[in-house]
Amino acid sequence: MKMTARVCVVTAGHLSTCPRMLKAADALAGAGYDVRVVSTNHTPWAAATDRSVLATRGWASTVVDYDRGTARATQVVTGARFRTARAVSAALGPMRVPMPMAVRAYSRIHDELVRTVASEPADFVYGGTTGALAAVAESASRLRVPYGIDFEDLHSEEHGPDSDVSNALASRIERQVIEAAAFATAGSPMIAEAYERAYRVRPIPIHNTFSMTLLDGAPERANRPLRLYWFSQTLGAGRGLEDIIKGIGKMGGPVELHLRARAIPSYLDALLAFQREVAPRVTIVRHDPAAPDDMVRLAQPYDAGLACDEPLGLSRQFCLANKLFTYLAAGVPVILSRTPAQARLEPELAGAAFGYDCGDVDGVAQILARLSSDSALREHARCAARLAAQRRWHWEHPEDRGALLAAVERAIR
Questions:
Q1: Separation between Cα atoms, residue 324 and residue 333, nearest integer Å
Q2: Which pLDDT band holds residue 1 (cuts at 50, 70, 90)?
Q3: What pTM does this model have?
Q4: Between 3.40.50.2000, 3.40.50.10860, 2.40.50.140, 3.40.50.300, what CATH number should domain 226-391 receive?
């Protein structure tokens, strides 16, 4: 009897904060592979959602712990090694520093991930997130098996202009890992195109789509304000929320703005002060982060979801974020800023999307006024979102989950 192929899925983040690798693990396990997931623990709030995720999974999991409270020694050692490698890379130059030093300057827990992945047999290694790129390649080399790499973002353009060292290190590591990979995947078509231009290797675009949860939908409003929803891992600057708040202020009507994320306290204080000044009729409601399995369900009660990121850097311009497809999977229309990637997607969503040019506060106000005053438009948009999810924008589609499974099958064959 043929032995079941063993696949190790790797992320340098918490399991619950990397839905791409979580979905990959579930898909591979569902296809009959023997799956083990290697992830990390370093943030207490995410550890709780990790436990929620693992409680409902049957595949194996190994965690690299470097949390201050639960693995203080590892936290100290990895921090010292990372700072030293960064200093050497900055002094010698990120393109001249020896590669072993470069990967440790790019990933704090490179060595720990490699040891953990290589500690058990595998027939294939697949992984993503910034800190796991080189670890996936090195651990697969130790195991003498092929690997696949995931570029959810354009990592060499992920950091601002004041982070030239980080971007240059990322470029070096990207080139090395993509050339030897059995395949690469990317989080959007424009990210895949950027990697093809840079390295002449075309990653497979696999969107950040989710399984549909199309229940009865939200009840129609009864004397309540328009309810908008936004979520992310962190509530901080550069997310476009200020334009939304300005647009609400210009629109003039009452609006509930629901935000689900871990807030940076100083930013939250500034955002609330800004809201009181420009849009006093906005009610901001904060929600704690939640497990990834709950995100589609939690989006359902709202009139519209916000995908309002600012086009800060090429990575942000080219990405299609989790939140956009979460809203569609919930049957909720999306208000989106026209970053290059989102502007390209907008026509495919038909009446499920309401786009505005980045910085166009008047455009935001007009969208909100229409949604607030027109119940037929809200219902039409909700139906369009459900249809868009059913037609194409769901994880089970052959071009998303199916494309990943086909790539792994080809690589292991």
A1: 9
A2: very low
A3: 0.94
A4: 3.40.50.2000
